[in-house]
Specification:
By secondary structure, this protein is α+β, with helices and mostly antiparallel strands. It folds into two domains: 65 residues, Ribosomal protein L11, N-terminal domain (2-Layer Sandwich), CATH 3.30.1550; 61 residues, Arc Repressor Mutant, subunit A (Orthogonal Bundle), CATH 1.10.10. It has five helices and three strands. Strands 1-2-3 form a three-stranded antiparallel beta sheet. Strand 2 and strand 3 form a beta hairpin. Helix 3 packs across helix 4. The termini are far apart.
């Protein structure tokens, strides 16, 4: 039995195309790239405008595939929550928005499976520290 080939990708939510990075990564495996692109777009449509980590597992013998979607980065979720285009260019003097504690908790809940904290409180503290340390979004 041949082991599945796994391709890790970072694609725009709902905007995957058969071009790079998907086409060159999946082309040598001989799979239907259009079917994979459609599946990725269907699964990532809720993350429009954000980069989303995607794993595509392909069985080289049967050409069957599985698509699994991760959650976007915490910074992408913060930018979406604040409804801004990007972080501050000068974080020590110019602030671009304020997150409420409810928003921080919401982001921590979305990231619960990938967070490094043991509990929700720990993840919220870690995210708040990141915001204060980098100063980009506070």
């Amino acid at each position: 039995m041949v082991e599945k080939k796994v391709v890790d990708l970072l694609v725009g939510g709902g905007q995957a195309t058969a071009g790079p990075p998907l086409g060159p990564a999946l082309g040598p495996l001989g799979v239907n790239i259009l079917a994979i692109v459609n599946k990725i777009n269907e699964l990532t449509k809720d993350y429009a405008g954000m980069k989303v980590p995607v794993k595509v597992a392909v069985d080289p013998e049967t050409k069957e595939f599985e698509v699994s979607v991760g959650t976007p980065t915490a910074s992408a979720l913060i930018v979406r929550e604040l409804k801004i285009e990007k972080g501050s260019g000068t974080p020590s003097t110019q602030k671009v928005g304020n997150l409420t504690m409810e928003q921080v908790i919401g982001i921590a809940k979305l990231k619960r499976f990938r967070g490094s904290g043991k509990g929700l409180e720990s993840r919220c503290q870690r995210n708040t520290w990141k915001l204060c340390e980098h100063g980009s979004y506070s």
